[in-house]
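Run: sequence + iron/sulfur cluster -> complex structure.
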Amino acid sequence: MSNISACPLDCYDACSVVYDKGMLQGDLSHELTQGFLCPHLNHYSAYKPISTARYKGKTISLEEAVTILKHSIRACDASKILHYRGHGNFGLMQGVSDYFFAKLGATLTSGSLCDGAGEAGILAGRGSNKQLDLKQIEDAQTVIVWGRNLHVTNSHLLPYIKGKKLIVIDPVTTKIAAQADHHIQIKPHGDLFLALLLSRFVVINDIEALDFLEEHTEGFQEFYELTQTVRIKSVLESIDVTLGDIGKVLELVGGKRTVILVGVGVQKHREGAAVLRAIDAFAAVLGLFGKKGCGVSYLGASQEGIENPFALAANTVSKVTADFSKFDLVFVQGSNPLNQMPASARVKERFAKARMTVYYGLYENETSEAADLVIPTCHFLQKHDIRCSYGTHHMLKMPQVMERESGIGEYDLMAALCECFGIALQSEQEYLEHFAAFSEEKESGNTVKGRDRIAYEKGFDTDDGRFAFMDEYEFEYVDANKLFLITCKSARSLNSQFQRDRHVYLHPDLGFEEGIMVTVVSDIGEVALSVKHNSNLRRDCVLIYSGVHGVNNLTPSYVSYEGNNAVYQDKKVEVRRCE
Ligand SMILES: Nc1nc2c(c(=O)[nH]1)N[C@H]1C(S)=C(S)[C@@H](COP(=O)(O)OP(=O)(O)OC[C@H]3O[C@@H](n4cnc5c(=O)[nH]c(N)nc54)[C@H](O)[C@@H]3O)O[C@H]1N2
Ligand SMILES: Nc1nc2c(c(=O)[nH]1)N[C@H]1C(S)=C(S)[C@@H](COP(=O)(O)OP(=O)(O)OC[C@H]3O[C@@H](n4cnc5c(=O)[nH]c(N)nc54)[C@H](O)[C@@H]3O)O[C@H]1N2
Ligand code: SF4
Ligand SMILES: [Mo]
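>> structure
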């Protein structure tokens, strides 16, 4: 057995992992991993997977569970079956269930709880969502980190930005913000205006890339006119940014090879697509595309250039608004929608109304507790897979490196179902080889074939090959007097997996003593949490991490204007002392 695998988690980094004598270590030879893992994998064995199947609270054998699943599927009209899959494991073989359920005629999901709004904005401007190669980050002179929390969610990128001029735009003084040459502690929701104003001042200061704009873009004049509709003084005041901030950014980027690392933080609003489109526009005005040491990095298309044999046409419902009560059978895989979907109190009620609910996952959580049938999977070291990533071009094999102790892997479960329902399925080996054929071996590690070292060097992927500037946007500031909710990722959990936080973080000046219980209230719902102080927050913000039990009682069920994405930071909140 090989002892090299890859971290299965939904993360920018996709670390290469060495399994040795019961221990997990970061692969020293891997370009990005550089020998270290993060707390999730360093403490991986501390988190105990579900060991036995159960039905209506009673322990059953795995064989019984599979039999119950087969009977339940057979008893339903296929169109009344919902397959709801998340990315608890990022392996490509996870998708084998999409294939089975699509062939069966079941309903799948579309849209995203994650990065879909931003992606829609990028697609509209560039025609594709290509990743920024690590080499370009390495070759940059100035780095703008815009709503991405590098130390927590993307720590393997830190060596790449060392020694560069650093600008951070984040309402929280994160660790990376504290190290920046300039930190703009922007008011949440202010990024669209900041990006528009930055573009305008690039032109006012005569540092726009005239040749690039002429040759590679469309609609610049209309875009410039759009930026002129933003009233400088009042808007800067409302987003808490100064002319000094704008001047500092222009000083650090002017004439410099610049990369912008954007995270999901900026797009958790209805207008999330416009935010990314405006950030891209700022980059285009500076001519940062298609050049060495330049570019905009977001969560890129992880499967670019890979043909997915599991993706078939199917009916879908939105991942954000899926109404479980409308289905006779709900099959949840690799996700914890009862805590991670927005408006989760309503999600929970609706889940209880579905005739039969199945949770197929690794750990216990809100969804496993509520499901009728629980089928344990096995963890990544105990099954074969292969993965790519939204942060790098790497493609890493994940061979089985230890014996299975409990649970059933995705391929084996779907093979049993395909056989029962007369659906043709290739062997696991054939699929693994199919995916591996899209990779090539490089010194820097296995990489997806055919990816551009310098994205958009040969033009954009829009119909006319030019970058399409935006010429309008929709924007609405809500509930001026309440507090902004920031709900981002924590260091100890991967969304709702691993060590979940239980606090609400407030600036000490808000007057709530540490340790007391408060109720955080939005017009969607409420959650009671104990207070911790954090003076890195703005005084108009409340921070509750992703994965905290009940955080999504506060968040709305509607989707972003574009991209069919959840909007976790659209609703403002109040904090009340518990009686
Ligand atoms: N440790 C850990 N790592 C993870 C995850 C995890 O749960 N834990 N989750 C993984 C997943 S699923 C994803 S999608 C990625 C996401 O990783 P990131 O892209 O880093 O996303 P977040 O942590 O949600 O938010 C990033 C930053 O955005 C800031 N922010 C919030 N609102 C705004 C705003 O209005 N404007 C600006 N400019 N900034 C804002 C937050 O303060 C935060 O510092 O991380 C992955 N990695
Ligand atoms: N408030 C708030 N809500 C958020 C976010 C936020 O920042 N704030 N972030 C959003 C984002 S970016 C995302 S991506 C979503 C994530 O939301 P979910 O997709 O629900 O992700 P997790 O909470 O990590 O749950 C992953 C599940 O996968 C299971 N699992 C792990 N490995 C395997 C495996 O190999 N096979 C199977 N079958 N199951 C496995 C685990 O048991 C766990 O139940 O949450 C979203 N919700
Ligand atoms: S940094 Fe990301 S890829 Fe690396 S071990 Fe941690 S979760 Fe896995
Ligand atoms: Mo995500």
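>> summary
The first helix runs from residue 39 to 42. The chain has three domains: 49-110+308-379+404-426, 116-301+453-468, 484-577.
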